[in-house]
Design goal:
- By secondary structure, this protein is mainly alpha-helical.
- Among the domains are: 181-318, no CATH class; 500-650.
- Helix content is 71%, strand content 0%.
- It has 26 helices and no strands.
- Helix 3 packs antiparallel against helix 20 and helix 5 (106-122) packs antiparallel against helix 16.
- The chain is globular and about 80 Å long.
- The protein starts with 16 loop residues before the first helix and ends with a helix.
C-alpha cells in the first residue's frame, strides 16, 4: 500500500535577521552598584523637592541625574569624573540656549538647527565628546519645549546639580577602590590570554583572540588614560603598565602555538593556561616575590616562544618595583593638552564626515521644529528628542535604531500608562521613581530597545511633574515618537546616498595594506633588533581591525543592499586577522631558531596583499583574482602563504 504523500507545512513568515538583531538581549550581568546608584540619584531629588514644596525643582535635578546615569559608562574613577562632569557642562549650556528661545517660533527653529549641527560635528571626536554633544542637543530641545523656572540660570543650575549627585555617589568608593578597576582590567586580560592558550588548535581560537584584543584595548585605555591625568610616574600605575606590556610577548607566541597545535594535532599542555591564570590572580591581588612555575620542557620553536614569554611575564608580574624609566607606553604618551585641542579642532572643522553627520542631524532637527511650528502639536519637544536619539550618527545604524526606538517607546509607554493613571502625583512618585530608575542600568546593557523601554517611563514621569498632564501624556508621546522616527528615516537615512552603501570595503582595504606593511616590517633586517616597533605595529593593526569589526556590526543591521554587502565581505575581515596572526607566528618561529625566509618570499607575500588591497578599493563587489604564490613548503612563511591564498579566494565571486 502506497504511503500517503507527505504534506509540507507552509513556510512561516519571519522577519529578517538584520531587523530582529537588536531585539535579542545581550547576555550581560546586572550591574548592581549602578542599579543602586541610579535608584538613589533619581529618587532622592524628588523626595527633597516634595519636602521643600518645589516638586518641579526636584524633577529638574532628577533630569540632570538621568543624564549622569546614562553617561556613567567608564570603569576607572578618574575617567568617570571626566565622563560625567564634561557632558553635564554641555548639558547646562544646552538648556540655557533652549530656555532663551522658548516660545520664540522660528528663532527657536534656527537656534536648535544650529545646535544640532554643532552636536553632530563634535560627535566624531570621541566617546566623551559624543555624550557631550548628545546632552547639548537634548537639553536644548527640552529647554525650548518645556517652560522652565525663572530666572534663566535656575534650570541649568538644577540640571547640573543632578549630575553632581551622580558624581558624588559614584566617587564614594574611590578611597577603598581607587586602583581596583585598572587592576581588575589587567588581570582580566591575563585570564583572556589563558583562554586563548586553551583554544590553541581549536575552532574557537579566533573568537578567543578577538576577546583578548578587546580586553587589551580596554586595559590600555584605562591605564594610559589615568597616566595622562597624572604628571610623573606613579608606582602603582608603572607596575600595572609593565604587567600589561608583559602580555605582548604572550600574544605574539599564541599564533605560533595555535598553528603548531593544528599541524601536529596536539594542544598546549594544561600547565600553560593554568600558569597564566596564576599570573592573573597575582595581578588581581598584588602579589610579589619569586615566581613559582611548573612548566613542561619546550621542544619546538613555538613551545620555546610560549615558555620564554610566560617566564618573562611571571618575572614582571611578581616584581615589586619595576623601573619607572624602563616602561614603554605601547600606544604612545598623550600629547600636550593644547596640541590635542588644536588637532581635534582641525579634524572637526575640516572633516567631510564631521560636516556630513552634522548636516544630517541639523536637517532632521530643523524639520522637526519647523513641523511643530506650523502644526500645533502638544508638547512637541518629544519629536525632536526622538530624532536626536535615533539619528545620533556614531551610535549605529539609523534604520535599526529608528525601528528599535519605536518598539522600545511603545514598550515603555505600556509601563508608564498604569503609573500615570493609577499613581497620584506626590510622595508616591518617590518609590515609583526608585523602581523605574533602577531598571535603566539593568536594561541599558541588554540593547538599545531595552534601554529605550527603561528610559521612556522615567522621562514621562519627570515631564508630568513639570507640565501636569497625567495620563494624557501617553498617546501624544507615542504619536510624537512615530513622527520623529519617520523624520529620521526619511530625512536622515533615505535621502542620503551613503545610507545605501557601506564603507567596509574601504576599511578592509586599509587593513590589508597595513598588513602588507606589517609583513615587510616583521621580516626586515631590523625586526629582531627593535621588537617594540613590531609590537606597536601589531597593536595598531588589531585596534584598526576592532574598528572594522564595529563597522561590520553596524552595517550588518542595515537593510539590503548595505547589509547584504557587509555579510559578503565579513569572511574577508576574519581572514585579515588570520593574516596578522600568521605573520606574527612566522616571526616568532624565526626568533626561536627557525630559518629566516628569503627576501624574495617576503616580497611576494607583500605584493599579493597590496594587490588585494588595491582590488578592494577599486570595486564594490567581490571580484575574481589570480594567485601565483610559491615558496618553500617547509619554510616559516608557508602558513602565511596559505592564509594569503585563502584571503584571495574569499575575494573571488
Amino acid at each position: 500500500m502506497a504511503k500517503p504523500a507527505r504534506i509540507t507545512p507552509p513556510a512561516r513568515l519571519t522577519p529578517p535577521s538584520w531587523l530582529t538583531a537588536g531585539l535579542r538581549p545581550q547576555p550581560t550581568p546586572v550591574p548592581w552598584a549602578a542599579v543602586l546608584r541610579a535608584a538613589v540619584a533619581l529618587s532622592a531629588p524628588l523626595a527633597v523637592g516634595f519636602a521643600a514644596g518645589q516638586p518641579a525643582y526636584g524633577a529638574l535635578v532628577s533630569m540632570g541625574a538621568l543624564s549622569g546615569v546614562i553617561g556613567d559608562t567608564a570603569d576607572a574613577y578618574r575617567m568617570r569624573i571626566f565622563n560625567i562632569a564634561v557632558p553635564q557642562l554641555f548639558g547646562a549650556l544646552g538648556v540655557t540656549l533652549g530656555t532663551l528661545v522658548f516660545g520664540q517660533g522660528w528663532l527657536a527653529v534656527a537656534a536648535l538647527t544650529l545646535v544640532a549641527l554643532v552636536s553632530g560635528m563634535i560627535s566624531s571626536i570621541g566617546a566623551v565628546a559624543s555624550v557631550s554633544g548628545l546632552l547639548l542637543l537634548l537639553n536644548a530641545v527640552v529647554g525650548a519645549g518645556l517652560p522652565m523656572p525663572d530666572p534663566w540660570w535656575k534650570a541649568p543650575l538644577l540640571l547640573t546639580l543632578g549630575g553632581v549627585v551622580v558624581l558624588v555617589l559614584t566617587l564614594l568608593g574611590w578611597p577603598l577602590r581607587g586602583g581596583a578597576p585598572e587592576r581588575t582590567a589587567v588581570a582580566g586580560t591575563y585570564r583572556a590570554v589563558a583562554e586563548l592558550f586553551e583554544a590553541a588548535g581549536a575552532d574557537t581560537y579566533d573568537e578567543k583572540r578577538q576577546a583578548v584584543t578587546a580586553s587589551l584595548n580596554q586595559s590600555y585605555d584605562l591605564v594610559l588614560a589615568r597616566r595622562a591625568r597624572q604628571h610623573g610616574r606613579a608606582p602603582t600605575l608603572v607596575r600595572l603598565l609593565s604587567q600589561l606590556n608583559a602580555v605582548i610577548p604572550l600574544l605574539e607566541a599564541a599564533p605560533a602555538a595555535h598553528l603548531a597545535a593544528r599541524r601536529f594535532h596536539r594542544p598546549l599542555p594544561p600547565e600553560i593556561p593554568a600558569a597564566v591564570r596564576g599570573l592573573a590572580d597575582s595581578v588581581d591581588r598584588g602579589r610579589t616575590g619569586a615566581p613559582e612555575l611548573a612548566l613542561p620542557e619546550p621542544r619546538r620553536p613555538s613551545e620555546r616562544a610560549v615558555d620564554a614569554a610566560l617566564r618573562y611575564a611571571a618575572t614582571v608580574v611578581h616584581k615589586a618595583e619595576p623601573n619607572p624609566y624602563n616602561v614603554d607606553d605601547r600606544l604612545g604618551r598623550p600629547a600636550a593638552l593644547r596640541v590635542r585641542v588644536r588637532r581635534t579642532s582641525r579634524a572637526v572643522l575640516f572633516s567631510e564626515a564631521s560636516w556630513r553627520y552634522g548636516l544630517r542631524l541639523a536637517l532632521c532637527i530643523g524639520l522637526s521644529q519647523a513641523l511643530v511650528s506650523l502644526i500645533p502639536v502638544p508638547r512637541s519637544y518629544w519629536i525632536a528628542l526622538t530624532v536626536t536619539f535615533v539619528l545620533k550618527p556614531d551610535f549605529g545604524s539609523v534604520f535599526s535604531r529608528a525601528v528599535l526606538r519605536a518598539l522600545g517607546t511603545a514598550a515603555g509607554l505600556l509601563v508608564a500608562a498604569p503609573v500615570l493613571a493609577a499613581v497620584p502625583r506626590g510622595w508616591w512618585d518617590v518609590p515609583v521613581m526608585m523602581l523605574l530608575a533602577a531598571l535603566i542600568p539593568a536594561f541599558s546593557a541588554k540593547g538599545y530597545a531595552f534601554q529605550t523601554a527603561a528610559i521612556t517611563p522615567v522621562i514621562l514621569l519627570l515631564s508630568d511633574l513639570l507640565n501636569h498632564q497625567g495620563f494624557d501624556l501617553v498617546l501624544p508621546r507615542l504619536y510624537d515618537s512615530l513622527i520623529g522616527c519617520a523624520i529620521a528615516l526619511v530625512a536622515g537615512y533615505l535621502l542620503w546616498p551613503e545610507s545605501w552603501h557601506t564603507r567596509v570595503a574601504d576599511r578592509l582595504a586599509d587593513a590589508v595594506a597595513d598588513t602588507a606593511g606589517y609583513v615587510a616590517l616583521a621580516f626586515s633586517p631590523l625586526a629582531g633588533d627593535d621588537p617594540p616597533v613590531r609590537h606597536r605595529a601589531r597593536r595598531k593593526l588589531y585596534r584598526d581591525m576592532s574598528a572594522v569589526r564595529s563597522e561590520f556590526q553596524r552595517a550588518l543591521t542595515e537593510p539590503p543592499p548595505a547589509g547584504d554587502l557587509a555579510a559578503a565581505w565579513w569572511p574577508l575581515a576574519i581572514a585579515v586577522e588570520r593574516l596578522v596572526d600568521a605573520t606574527t607566528a612566522a616571526r616568532i618561529r624565526v626568533d626561536h631558531g627557525a630559518p629566516a625566509p628569503e627576501p624574495a618570499e617576503v616580497a611576494a607575500v607583500e605584493g599579493q596583499l597590496r594587490e588585494l588591497a588595491e582590488g578592494l578599493r577599486s570595486s564594490d563587489v567581490l571580484v575574481e583574482v589570480r594567485v601565483d604564490l610559491g615558496g618553500d613548503e617547509e619554510g616559516v612563511l608557508e602558513p602565511l602563504r596559505q592564509e594569503v591564498r585563502a584571503a584571495r579566494a574569499i575575494a573571488s565571486p
